[in-house]
Amino acid sequence: MAVTVETLEKLERKITLSLPLAAIQSEVDTRLKKLARTVKMDGFRPGKVPMNVVAQRYGYSVHYEVMNDKVGEAFAQAANEAKLRVAGQPQITEKEGAAEGQVAFDAVFEVYPEVKIADLSGTEIEKLTAQVSDDAITKTLDILRKQRRTFAQRAADAAAQDGDRVTVDFEGKIDGEPFAGGKADDFQFLVGEGQMLKEFEDAVRGMKSGESKTFPLAFPADYHGQDVAGKTADFLVTVKKIEAAHLPEVNDALAKSLGVAEGTVAALQADIKKNLEREVKSRLTARNKQAAMDALVAKAELDLPKSIVQAEIDRMVEGARADLKQRGIKDADKAPIPAELFTAQAERRVRLGLVVAELVRVNNLQATPEQIKAHVDELAASYERPDDVKRWYLGDNRRMAEVEAVVIENNVTDFVLSKAKVAEKAISFDELMGQA
Asked: What is the mean pLDDT of the chain?
């Protein structure tokens, strides 16, 4: 086999493969003979079909398979001999002008780039820290109490206020005409909790049971109901019932109802703090990991393989289609999704993946069995039956691969932070949780 390698541009290469026709024909004959022993055809007993008949029926497909196999083997061998790290699938086309008794092919492909990572010692990275405050524990406890609130009907002359549950009839019209979804009877919602548009809540707040009111409501331009988005409707609303909320007291009975084994308020608060600390740790890790990865990518120099970027774009488009399908969108698999929407994100993912892989290789940052086990233990610790969760992870190679990937990312983050200039910044619990 004669092999030549050409550099076309940046990462693109071309290998010319020449294969002897005799070897290809010999393999075709061997496969046809093997096929003849088992093939079934009308008018012939199994194994008794003449070779010329088998060749006439299956010759083309067998020849195609052999050519694919031989060219694939020749390409893999040539790339290996040239010590090329092939990125993506090669584009193989038959080449004219081959020597007598030979068939030639051009294989155009990309190779993985050389990744250069500059010195990280001068890089400044802001590392966030946060603590679980007593106020955060109290707020979480209030949320748990709200989830278990009960309602009792208010007096007839009581006005609806924030926190009340109201039952209403309403009908909306645009230019005097009803519209889909604009009418309901015995509809319940909680005042002041954003379950309805602000104008609707403002109109009902202060009304009494039995009262009716007409008011205008301007639908936002980005409202999910496309038929009414950006339009103004006139609503008639009638309040039928107003119920005041009652929150359970913070006592041992509440702790028991929330499944706290010790059944005390102190144990409940300790349990809440433990869960919040776990969530804070997770969010801080994610934020600081992002900062470290951003700094790492900024210090890296490399060319991106177009084939790998395109494969990532295709994967993201398919993910978007799957998401549409899950939401019940009709003909989601045919929905026009412009690939260019994902180009920048795909390029970043590929760039980051290549840079991380190089850093891991050069600095031996692979995940150790001990690290993987510790991460699985940590993931399982938040569940009631951690041993079952551990078995769930350990019993699936795909899930374990995901765990390994997270551990490697953590190793890379720690490495980058150990080399860079790190400035710690304390932020509030609310800011970290996205409530500020």
From this structure: 91
Of the candidates 347, 272, 344, the one whose C-alpha atom is nearest the C-alpha of residue 305 is 347
Single residue among 215, 246, 277 that ends a domain in this structure: 246
CB-based burial label for 371 (10 Å; 0-12, 13-18, 19+): middle
Task: Evaluate the CA torsion angle 24, 25, 27, 31 in order and state its sign.
Answer: positive
Q: What is the pLDDT of residues 245-290, one digit of tens each?
A: 999 999 999 999 998 888 899 999 999 999 999 999 999 999 999 9
> Measured between alpha carbons, how far is 356 from 345 in angstroms, rounded to an integer?
16
Is 400 part of a structural domain of the chain? Answer: yes
pLDDT of the residue at 209: 96
d(CA 60, CA 55): 8
More confident residue, 17 or 205: 205
User: Residue range 366-382: average pLDDT?
Assistant: 93
- Is 208 found in the same domain as 163? yes
- In the DSSP assignment, the letter for residue 163 is T
CATH number at residue 99: 3.30.70.1050
Report d(CA 374, CA 384) in Å as an integer. 18
Order of strands, sheet of 3-9, starting from the edge strand that comes earlier in the sequence: 3-9, 12-20, 102-111, 86-95
> What are the CB-based long-range contacts (under 8 Å, 24+) for 131-139?
131/280, 131/426, 131/429, 132/273, 132/276, 132/277, 132/280, 132/429, 133/428, 133/429, 135/429, 136/276, 136/429, 136/430, 137/269, 137/272, 137/273, 137/276
Tell me the pLDDT band of 435, cut-offs 50, 70 and 90.
Answer: low
319 and 363 housed in the same domain: yes
What are the tokens at 426?
A: 């304390």
**pLDDT for the residue 2:** 52
The pLDDT-based confidence of 158 (bands split at 50, 70, 90) is: very high
Print the domain residue range for 67.
Answer: 3-111
Same domain, 226 and 91: no
